[in-house]
Fold these 2 entries.
Entry 1:
Amino acid sequence: MKNKHFILSVMVAATTLSCTDSWEEHYAVPAQSTTTLWQQISDNVELDDFARLLQSRGYDKLLDSDQRFTVWAPKGKIDTSLVTGGMMSDEEITTQVIENHIARSLISVSAAKADSIKTLNGKLMRLIGDGIHVAFNGVRIESPNMECSNGLLHIVEQQVRFNNNIWTYLRQDNDLQQLCDYLYGFNRQEFDPNASTLGGVVGGEKVYSDSVFITTNELWSRMGQLNAENTSYVMTAPTNQAWEETVEEFKAFYRYPEGIYKHMGDSVAKRRITEYLVRRTDSEEPLPYEALITDTVDCSNGTLLKAEALNIDPYETFVQDIVIEAEAEAYMTKEPSNCEATSVFVVTGKNELSKNRYMKLVATSPLLKPTVTYVLPNVLSCKYDIGVVFVPMNLTKNGYSSVIDPKDGRVDVELYDDYLGEVYKSTGLDIDGTTIDTVWVREEHQFEYCDYYPNREKLTDSKLTLKITGTAKRTETTLSRDMYIDCIVLRPRRY
Amino acid sequence: MRHILLLLTTILWAAQPAMPQETVWKGSVVSHATGMPIAGAIVTAESDARYSAMSDTKGTFEITLPPHIGTLTVEATDHKSVTLHLPAEGTAIKVLMHPAIVPSAAATALTIEDNLATKQAEGLRTIRGSSNPAQGAMLMLGGWHSLNSNATPLIVVDGVVLDQQNDRPLLHQGYLNNVLSAISPDDIEKVSILHDATALYGAKGGGGVILIETKRAKSMATRIDVNLRSGMEWMPRLPQMMNAAQYRSYAADILGNATTTPEFLSNQTADKQLYAMYHNDTDWSRAVYQKALTQYYGINVQGGDEIAKYNLGINYSNAESTLKGNDFDRLSLRFNTDVNIVDPLTVQLDVAYSNTGRNLRDDGIHSGDNFAPSALALIKSPLLNSHMADKSGNFTASLADYDVFGISNPLAIIEGGDASNKNSLSYNLFFMNIRPEWRLGKHLTISEQVSYVLNNVTERYFMPDEGVPTIVNGTDAAINNQSRAYSSKQTSLMSDTRLTWSARHGLHRMKTVGGMRYMSDTYNNDGISASNTVSDKMPNITATMDNRQVTGCYEQWKSAALYLHADYSYTDRYDLTASLTGETSTRYGRNAQGGITVGDYVWAMFPSLQARWNVSAEPFFRKTKAISQLAITAGIDQSGNDRIPPYASRSYFTTTPFINGTAGISLGHIGNDKLRWETTTRLHVGAQMRAFEERWGIAVKATKSYTDNLLVWKPLDGISGLSRYLCNEGQLENISYSLHTDIRLLSRRNLSWDIYGTANSYANRLTALPEGNKSFTTDYMEGQLLTAIDNPIAVFYGYRTNGVFATTEAAQEAAIRMGSERGYQLQAGDPVYIDTNDDHIINEEDRQIIGDPNPDLFGSFGTTLTWRGFTFDASFTYNIGGDIYNYARRVLEQGGSYHNQTTAMLRRWVREGQQTDVPRANSASKTSGYGFTDRWIEDGSYMKLRSVSVSYHKPLALSFMQGFTVWVAANNMFTLTRYLGADPEVSCSRNALYQGIDCGLLGEGRSVTAGIKINL
């Protein structure tokens, strides 16, 4: 009997501790819905139209796979014409409509909170609960949080609005047509080998069974990827009239002489305008003008501000000082055969010199005067004050030297305008050898034609040059023929 | 000394009463199983072997005893020995003897800890960490007696103190060097656990003492035992991980609300190579685990003559690990001799050598970068394959590189790191012990024990480039592959000179031992690591490699102990033991506190007084028939802990890398030359009883211990450049209970059945800490361990939770933010943190004690049944209470990364209103820093069938063979537990502060072993 009691006790103790059940309970695969999103959608007659749309683009397979999605399935008729993005094919539009209702991962909704998510087409959608219902981008969710084996299904009352991004919105607004035509004119279709399916190699050439082309636009790299959903922008979009006025205003600075470039002013002006229209939302640098905004449009990747006047001040934006570094050999048009040019680096610590370098031009011939010529590229068709910045000869790498006795100088300067065939001379200009001195050689000089060529291959093609000659005589021992030049400065003067 | 002995002798003589009249007792010895008389049984007075008798063929005997004898011992062949008190005067002595249980011959242990774990004997708690072969266990006796010093018992092998090197660094994560792995359990005769009377070991016995005696020749007859065995271990239970489909869904949740599909989730890629790469359902555990084969071959030879006796043991073990790349082998030789040189002079000469070799890989898991194949097998995505695919999508023989998530290929680490100069450890132990003993007369003996122990460890570590991501962690150059080498050597010299005086005078017996123990140790280690070998095929470190770092140390310490130990017995009823040890050590400074200064050294004093009352020997007890033996013990004992860093009392400088390659020196430590020994004082009381015709035995003990001068770290002013220094400003207490009982259930002619059980408990409490009892937390495995007054040491300190917010409404109503008023507000799917101060902010003020790693009760029980030549043996161990911080599960259920997760994460919150206990994926990233919650604290209770075996012994009367025993044993066949990790026996460290934490080391699998033992 005692033995039985003992065995019983052991069994009781074993049962008390026993708990492989805990292991099983913890690691057991929970009972979950076995119905996939696609099965749930296709079984619901109210979602027939949406289901047909999914099938048409192969999304039925995606929603039947083991990936995780959340679907806001719209009841009733689907109208693809509501999406009219720029240059979209019918297939692309259908895809946009579908992806407008699907998001990756599980998005559970609650009437007690507001949230925002991105659908597969990258659109930012707002989920707003009013305490009773939830609206998905403004459309009420009738049946929320239906769990499927591969995601969550929310049934919405109707098709969800397609949120234009800034790029596609431009196409929707007639007031912006001129701007839109200009920007869309740069669209290109490019073959994407990575997205395409390789069918084989025939005759050494790759043959693709499914070729994929993507839209590119060279302006996106300058303005911003306005068709992308992963970055947020603010765009000031001039109306047609504002656009024309601004183009005209800009063109005045881009007058070209007769010839093949005569009409280039229009395209240059437009391209320059686009540089001032877009900023990233998170950018701390504001736009440098105050446009007359008449409307604000929320887009999926930012905000578009419609402007009836841009009010861009050229002198605050693209008409800027032109500084030509004297030590930069790229600007020298004539090799100084009668002198030796050396670039000197100076550690002044006070930013006294432009880029902390100047050019030291030492005469190598006792008979010839040292001469150097610089081109003046990128000059616009407006008025400039033209100056040359000279440096005292005792400014060395380590600052002002006490062992070098600085001397004054004298120069002649000639401005050549080959567009007009004119030469403008300024002679006997004295140089103060004790300080960094800007010698203004021409004031309010009007350039008839601009020298702005964005695709210029060589700077020395410029037809505007400035020749500087040291004119001190050898007998003038208090003067130096050597020239120490920091830079050439062209400072715009307002009309 | 001579004066003292003379005085003691005089006192004893003076105290001797006149010898009373002796009495003739008659009795009989009868078998309990058959009722038949037992002939040849030897009956002896327990306290005086001069009084003895032998039973005749009728089982009867006559023994003449003086009146002070009250207890007899009876021994007979094939029977269990009996100790019993005399009956009432005039009554015949009746001795009932039970047949002896033939112990099972099953021996599967690779180290002594495996055997200790099976028995969980006498309050000793053994906690296995990794189940890699011969990895040993964390040992603890009667509670924790130290925070920052050695907390494990002292190991003494044949009288020689063995340094366990617990605090020595090694290269492979998860591996702790186990000195005991060098000693084969087959060479061990006996293990004794010394809770009390540890004062004899002075400043080294604070954590208790384990005495190991190796086999010696018992007789001059030649005896040869051959042991052969082989076994198989299956892979341990692992958490159930997600399969590919489940993982794909989980990864999609982690990816979140993305608008592009990464390659690893895309079903639509036309690239066959990419498709093959990410469309698998790989069970990575198959790549890293295996069935492990164990082999053992041993021979033991005993014999000798009147001049010399010897015992020679040679054995070889080879054990694969269930975790690939962690195999173990050991060649062990031990030669123990006892030589009678001349009549009064005997010498014990023992020599042992052991060589253990291991393959090693990192083990254990982390939430950061993992390079342990075991961890990688759990966290690596099942979508991936271990091999690379070609352009056609067919898998090649080339191993895959690390994956898109930056997780290494575990197979690449196993195969790419497989070579003796890549990932291996060699450990050599040489042991020599000489103990001459000179008998100076009838009462006086002098002995000298000299021992020399050499410990030598050589380890290599290599992390290949192939299959492993490049590591950039602040080193000069990015790490493509990494090679490390380490070697250490420790030599220990011990001299123990001992004078023993023993005498018996009438009713008095006395034995006094006095002596001096001197120990001298030197230890040095050298390590080097460097990155970027020429290729994975060439792991040797060269001067041209990047990030070269060299480490090393040289330590030398000495200690000396003077001890005096006296055993006194009055009749066989009262025993009194007293001892006093004075010990000094070079680890302490000349200004060490709490001792007696003699010359340049400070001697700490450790006294002990133990008493035993043999109640059943009292005359008044003779009429008690039910109880054959009853004794009560009590004592007080003091011992210490000198395992502080060798130069803790000294200030010193260390070398420091300075500006990429130049070595500078900086202050490395500020010494405290007033440090004193941690001192543990134990008070204990206990009783032992056997009753009901020797059927039932029970022993109970209660011990209260006080540890004073606790070594703790104290903050240093920042001006020193150091953050802390050691001081003695803490106290802690332990109270422990132990119970052992055994019952003879059946005694038949051919059938005997015993059961036994042990139950132990301890409670640990801190009573003082520095800086006004200021509590502190210790960070370990991303958890916080609180050390605070009135609590056990290092309890788990974190946040309590109450499930998961099922709805947004519930979360908004709670309005709880993490960290501060502007912190992240908990949402639906996040854990419901308990806001203890109701301020709606979860921060450190809301932390609570969420678990205690100390068990309420632990022990073992089992049964042995003998039927004819068969022995069936089963032993269970159990642990009730005691929490485990399941860090491994925390990594595997964090839900914040692309690491594969357990299937428990399939219950994660995904939608409004869902009732679940698992938070949503990515919740962890929102509540980062608040992750140490009660979700990871589990009940560590378990009951484990540690071993079950059947053996059959066949005696033979052949000229070349005396018999053989065949056996088969199964280990770890089942564990009843609620614990959700691989194994509820967890220990990542030998440090007392870091117990009860599961860092994912290899768990124990089921194993079956069969063997044969041949007696030649």
Note: Chain A touches chain B through 51 residues (CB under 8 Å).
Entry 2:
Amino acid sequence: MTALRQKLLRDLRVLWTQAVAISLVIACGVATFVMSVSVLQSLERRAAQYYEDARLPHVFAHLKRAPVSIARRVAEVPGVAAVETRVVAEVTLDLPGVIEPAVGRLVSIPDRGGPSLSRLHLRQGRWPDPGRRSEVLANEAFAEAHGLVPGDRLRAVMNGRREQLIVVGIALSPEYVYQIRGGDVVPDDRRFGVLWMRDRPLAAAFDLANACNDVVVAVTPGASLPAVRAQIDVLLAPYGGRGAYGREDQVSYRTVANELSQLRAMALLVPVIFLLVAAFILNLVLNRMIATQREQIATLKAFGYRRREIAAHYLQFALLIVLAGAALGTAVGAWLGTGLADLYVRFFRFPDQHYSVGLGVAASALGISLLAGVLSVAMAIRRVVRLAPAEAMRPEAPRPFRGGFLHSHGSVGRLSPLARLTLRQIARHPVRAVLSTLGIALGIAVMVLGSFSADLVDRIMEDHFEATQRFDFSIGFIEPSDVGTLQAVARLPGVLRAEGFRSVAVRLRRGSHARLTSLLGLEADSGLLRPIDVKGDPIPFPTSGLLLSEKLAQLLEVNPGQTVEVEVLEGARPVRALRVAGTVRDFAGQAAYLTRGELNDFLREGAVISGAFALTDPLREAALYAKIKETPRIGGITSTRSLIQSFKRLMSENMLRMRLFNMIFASIIAFGVVYNAARITLSERAWELATLRVIGLSRREVSATLLGEIAALTVLAIPVGALLGNLLARLTVRALETETQHFPLVIDPSTYATAILTVVAATVISSLVVRRRIDRLDLVAVLKSHD
Amino acid sequence: MPPDAPPPPEDRAASTAQAAPVFVARGVTRTFRSGATEVHALRGIDLELYAGEFVVLLGPSGSGKSTLLNILGGLDVPTSGSVRFRDHDLTSWDDAALTHYRREHVGFVFQFYNLMPTLTARENVAVVTDIARDPMSPEEALRRVGLGDHLDRFPAELSGGEQQRVAIARSIAKRPDVLLCDEPTGALDVKTGITVLEVIERLNRELGTTTVIITHNAVIAAMADRVITLSDGRIASLQCNPARASAASLVW
């Protein structure tokens, strides 16, 4: 080993605590990068592969009823590659040992073999026997939630008749990678499940023999999807077509795509922050190291070491630190990635659950961190190279200090000499003071950034379930019924209050923009579903006109006061222009409301409701469930309480884990910045501090001047960090925004407080570590050294 | 050969001394700019140095000694004038050429030793032998300065005199053509200073290295073949010693 290499290792040993602190910050950045990108890549790969292999359709259309021969006509539409007709029906399920009813979506599969589109992947068991009418396949997420295995039985109320179903297999479908019921905000695998049944028995049960109510289509490559959809709409309209839509509006596909795009945003934002901080500290440390090694550098030059040899020496120092950080970060990132991938497995069901960190990800993590390392030290190394040896042989001239503001300002005069010393020290290195403040502030910001998502979720839940959906149950009828039915609902056991609603599938159109959604007709004095305005306050229901989700209004480019064309996709399919009376805040970005009366008029029907919202007595839930299970006219029931529970169960573990990691990451950043800044100040001021000790100041007082500086910078960093955190959260919310989802920026004061306290704690700890060094300052040695 | 050149000492390799001088400086000036003020460190120096010669540069601080030494060593370049090393004009060289020159031909000894604190005595010497073309081993260099048994000590474990001897071992290990010492005894007590001078004197005799020592200690001048006194950036006097005093005989 050459002597210079030896020096490198010894220098690293001297500065090991600082080197470790920097490596850790880099490791955090690399870990988040490797985690997000590797999970992103394996999800993207899996999703694309699965959609392709299992032939996820490109166009989906529901309709009232059409003869199966409609398939031939759809197949003739230019661009259509394959068509499959199905029967899809929702039923109330009664599972053995489960008190609450679940909604089952029964999807037909051909009587022989499997479907040609949306091919099922059989995980367990066998395909239903075409000859037996009660055999079904269960979606894996649903089966897992209930511990269903082939051979298990469940009861269903199918089209008013009670039937016994036998699960003969567990399957996956590309259409239900994410199993959620359209319109729901969160998945609830216990209360919603997809089941597949042979076509003949299912069609017979719903009086759809030789008919279908659902068409899916795959298109040829290069086909124009809007054109195909438009032609299918025309073909299906006479059969009660509800409007053909593409993958981007298919709830599972959309959710997976949204998740991927959000992951993509996170994969960039967070690592960039960490690497910037690491680059900054590395720059700080190397600059200081070079300053203290001025003479050594000059000596090397005097002995004929070339510029590039010396530059390489210092670059190696930086790169060793970066390499250590990158290696650690890649390992931690792969580990975190496994955890995250496991989490996704619980939400997203792909046949291939394999997760691995690609070589490319590891290589780009290494490349990016090396680049950050090189950039961070480039300036410092340029100085080394430029250093004139003859000049460097002399100690650096003291920086001229003129006091300036801190000298002349009256109030400073009243401070103790030590306080003045502290302030002047800050004023003397303003750039470093600013950068250190920024570094500590970034610690706070990262913590805010990492934790605010919990606030966001809380707010969404609050908006959705406390402010807007205030009912305990939403009960859907099989067929729209007279308002009088509400009396029956009100008489169900435990129901305290019931409100009817009318719901209808519509297409909203304005200019060239069109969206499919469901229009909800509410009682004008609705208390159980209460739209809220953008500020979160309940909005008074307009006597006439639409209330539209703000996001939906944006998509349609419509403002309150203007009109949109509403095309009803059921019944007589009336079309009418309706005025937008106002916009509302909703998470899913799909909401459209009208008063029930106005909607009934629009549909040219009497006082009719599609279902009811109910407020219930939790103590009598069991009785209610039992009654509902045997009420054939009820097509489905959604329990708000259980949705919230299932969501909280899913989120809490995840959120807690993420919060813990963010706390660790933020602490590492704060520690890295503060510790390095303090160590550098200590090395620069050792002479001054030793002098103060020699002239009789106590260790406490001497520590106070140095730690006072850190404290002052930390105090400055708190508001800056809070602001930066807010800014980063704002950026993230933007990045997370998708076509339909809009997220409010919500940061709870407690999130700021936790972030600030965590970073202050990290600061205090690093100060204590540095303080031990001050206490051990060898006065004689320091004063003897000539600079 | 200029008329004032000294007769070669008997114990020196006479053949090289008779030939052209190792260094020829003509009209060398060096001006430093510090803010609005200009500092004239050298105001026109004419000088020759010969192979194997032992030269002492005397003068008060600020007289330009270090600047002259740095220019001879290729650490600094003159503002005007020329410096020739053998057949080469140092002033025409760029940084890379000067670096090569220092690497191949020059040994430096500094007042504050300038050892790498994190390297042992042996490793400090190796810093130079690692890049030299035909160096002696670090062990041999350290034996020559009497530190053969302190090879693995760190600078902090050595006395000032020992540290300076490591620095000397480091500078002679590459067998330089010229050894430039800037106040080598400046930070040392008398006894240690003399030990260090003895080492330099012995190496000058044994290796025939042209040696230039800067000092403001006039007593040291007695060791030299020639004594050049600088004052205010000019050569104030040039004196040849008929006989060199041994370092051991010096008293200050």
Note: The mean pLDDT of chain A is 85.
